[in-house]
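Q: What structure does this chain adopt?
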Amino acid sequence: MSNQRAFQGIRMNSRQEKPRTRGITEIRGPYYSVMGKNYLQDILETMGGYVDSLKFAGGAFTLYPEDKLRELLDLAHDYGVKVSTGGFMETVVTQGPEAIDHYISECKRVGFDIIEISTGFITMPKDDIVRLVEKVQNAGLLAKPEIGVQFGAGGTNTVEQNEAEGITDPAQAIEVGKRCLDAGAYMLMIESEGITESVRTWRTEVATQFARELGTEKVMFEAADPDVFEWYIKNYGPEINVFVDHSQIVQLETLRRGTWGTKDLWGRVVTLGE
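A:
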């Protein structure tokens, strides 16, 4: 596959080539819409150079016939794209240790690269979360714990439902995040609910606290809304790691490259190159 762009004479921000260690873009796979091989092929043939990982959601991968699931994973790998389970671990852990072992081994067998360890709907001791990270890493896969401040986060809650649940102290999530990174976690996913999603007013001070305490190299912010990823790029630069919907790849990359955007960003997002 050729990565040669047209319009080489037009100057734009440079980007680290894949496999990238910064400015990582993860896209949502099948959940709100069905995604088959042809659909994903269209995305990756055109914009695959800007996609670093593909994340399933809601355990969608458990619904696929295995041969069709493998087609998607193999296709992603052909384009240098890692594949993540998304947040399904919290369903599995309620079924006990044997289910956890089965889940991890099946993820490896069918070809997943990343297992996200989400705890949005359950409460787990910190030591157990760290043990899950170690178990995933020891299996030869990449552990990606999800941390946040909103209990019951799932993407469909109303503002009122989230307010009724309440939020947790960011310091607790930061402590979990640090311990997971010390245990070898590949990256941390920062859940958007309670920060920029399903809230009356964005709690950007929480995002700032996460970035300050955990750094940004091993942190990925959920930002599946253009206003949200624009805010992250404006405040942390074009090499911030974000998760977006697959429909937003082009808009995100133009912001990273500094070639288009809102009045706040257009022409103001700059990198100095390698």
